[in-house]
Amino acid sequence: MEEFEALLNESFEMDTPEEGSVVKGKVIAIEAGQAIIDVGYKMEGRVDIKEFADPGEQPKIAPGDEVEVFLRQVENARGEAVISREMARREEAWDRLEKAYADDTRVEGAIFGRVKGGFTVDLGGAVAFLPGSQVDVRPVRDAGPLMGLKQPFQILKMDRRRGNIVVSRRAILEESRAEQRAEVIGNLTEGQTVEGVVKNITEYGAFVDLGGVDGLLHVTDMAWRRVNHPSEILSIGESINVQVIKINKDTHRISLGMKQLQEDPWDLVAAKYPLESAHTGRVTNITDYGAFVELEPGVEGLVHVSEMSWTKKNVHPGKIVSTSQEVEVMVLEIDSAKRRVSLGLKQTMRNPWEVFAETHPEGTEVEGEVKNITEFGLFVGLPGDIDGMVHLSDLSWDERGEDAIQNYRKGDMVQAVVSEVDVEKERISLSIKGVGGDKFAEAVGGVKRGSIVTVTVTAIEEGGIEVEYEGMKSFIRRSDLSRDRAEQRPERFSVGDKVDVRITNVDNKSRRLGVSIKAREIAEEKEAVEQYGSSDSGASLGDILGAALKGDD
Fold first, then answer.
1. Per-domain residue ranges for the chain?
2. Mind listing the pLDDT tens digit for each residue in 74-133?
3. 246: helix, coil or strand?
């Protein structure tokens, strides 16, 4: 009895493990996919053997193995302990991971599932979240090869209370890559020629793998000629030779060049393209201010919009030339320091104003279409795609310019005479009224002031009469119809009457003749007095006129 009492007291003194703690146990059997584990204290429990397997691997468990399990419940309805290997591994893993997080050390794990925004990672019992952006240094399209593969991760964030762990694979790769880059960059020197493989192509260039480190080959350093897109001369996976142009030790950025390994065509530009020489080139690019023309690969020149056409002054270059068009240009200027060539397109064609001046001297009659009507005249289209201007004063002999211009419409075909060509100012003056000659000049060519001519009455008006001389109209006012006031009556004349008049004025500017009957009569009287007598001879005016009439007889 004493021994039994002692054993009973000893059993009461033994600490029963607390629920929710990790205890050690021994596998005593495996049956029906479960491991039967003796956790001591006369307690046994069952655990699915799959809880002893790592992701993607077979379970490693056998009778006699000692394992740690999590005691969830001391005894269930069947009198067995409720235990979990997975929860024990989780508690163990959290302790280990918290220490790794505190020491900023790497942990090993395996990606085993995909979730929204990333993947799940088994860290030896604890499940962590791997964001999609933290899988690799570049976006990963297919994560299949990474599944179930044990690899290192960096813990970015963890919260045991909430059970959250965030890890990164990218941080490990970047660290490893940085070490590799530093090693490769340490073996490179500026000006060195190396071989690389094109890994990626963008609009501004290509990334070239130099054996663990990438360098940027900018599009402007691919060739001496203009390259619109890197894909024109490169393809992904292609092996190329490049020259190291610049190495930034701080950022580990490497600038590469291909054209530096080729001969610079600009070394021979001055000799091959002397000033004012003409060459054939290809239009490579068109802008608002001009067009770029390739003379040879790597040598381009600019044809400024002002040098494109003699006649098209305010049009976009794209309306004169087109991309890839072959054109003939003239070299106007070369700046080797700035690698610029100024070219001219219009200089390869003759100045149309010079050609017009040679083929249409002053006085030549031309025909053209009215292109525009302004307040000061007409613009008429001429051969050579140029315009000539007819000033208001050159529209008509008989009408004021402001009135005559109303007779014309845009698109009318008109005849005109070339009156002046100014090649330097690119101006051509035309005259419509000059067609057929100067009628006024022809009519009054032999007439001068004081001449007596015969005119024909064409109209009777209250203020005088209208007369015509050689097609030129003139008007005799009432006061000039006679010396005698009683005879200054327009109605005493009839249309068609022939009347002798004296020319009082020849106005070439207004194209008018001034005529007078009164002036003719006074002149005749004066002439008679001088010929047949004087005022102090005692002869009367009637005597003098009678003598004059006898003389006429």
1. 19-88, 104-174, 188-261, 265-344, 352-431, 440-531
2. 666 565 766 666 666 777 778 888 888 888 888 888 988 888 989 998 887 788 999 988
3. strand
Helices (H), 55-210: 85-103, 170-186
Q: What are the distances in angstroms from CA 460 to CA 202, 463, 490?
A: 92, 9, 6
Nearest to 216 by CA among 239, 238, 182, 242: 242
310: tokens are 């003699």
Give me the pLDDT at residue 6, please: 63
User: What percentage of the chain carries pLDDT values higher than 70?
Assistant: 83
Q: How far apart are CA 153 and CA 107, in angstroms?
A: 5
Count CB-CB contacts under 10 A for residue 355: 16
Tens digits of residue pLDDT in 237-274 = 889 999 988 888 777 788 999 988 888 788 888 888 89
What are 549's two structure tokens?
């009439």
Non-local (6+) Cβ contacts of 424 within 8 A are: none
Domains 19-88 and 352-431 share a fold: yes
Cα–chain-centroid distance for residue 60?
69
Name the nearest CA neighbour of 139 among 182, 200, 197, 180: 200
Could you confirm whether domain 265-344 is CATH 3.40.50.2300?
A: no
Of how many residues is the chain composed?
553
> Own/partner pairs for 387-391, CB < 8 Å, 24+ apart?
387/428, 388/416, 388/418, 388/428, 388/429, 388/430, 389/427, 389/428, 389/429, 389/430, 390/414, 390/416, 390/429, 390/430, 390/431, 390/432, 391/429
Cα–Cα distance between 273 and 461 in angstroms, integer? 79
Predicted local confidence at residue 302, as pLDDT: 93
Distance of CA 57 to the CA centre of its chain: 61
Give the list of residues 6+ apart from residue 406 with CB closer than 8 angstroms, or none.
Answer: none
Task: Report how far residue 56's alpha carbon sits from residue 41's, in angstroms, rounded to the nearest whole number.
Answer: 35
Q: Which two tokens stand for residue 474?
A: 């003139």
Superfamily of domain 188-261: Nucleic acid-binding proteins (2.40.50.140)
CB-based contacts of 342-346 (< 8 A; 24+ apart in sequence): 342/301, 342/302, 342/304, 342/307, 343/281, 343/293, 343/301, 343/302, 343/303, 343/307, 344/303, 344/307, 345/303, 345/307, 345/308, 345/309, 345/320, 345/321, 346/307, 346/308, 346/309, 346/310
What's the CATH number for 352-431? 2.40.50.140
Instruction: Judge residue 508's burial from the number of C-beta atoms within 10 Å of its C-beta, 0-12 exposed, 13-18 middle, 19 or more buried.
Output: exposed
Note whether 432 and 420 are within 8 A (CB): no
Tokens linked to 155: 């813990």
Record: fold of 440-531: OB fold (Dihydrolipoamide Acetyltransferase, E2P) (2.40.50)
Question: For the domain 19-88, what is the CATH superfamily, name and number?
Answer: Nucleic acid-binding proteins (2.40.50.140)
Q: In degrees rounded to 5, what are phi and psi of residue 346?
A: -70, -25
Start-to-end CA distance of the chain, whole Å, equals: 203
The domain covering 104-174 belongs, at the CATH homologous superfamily level, to Nucleic acid-binding proteins (2.40.50.140)
Q: For residue 301, what are the β-bridge partners?
A: 293
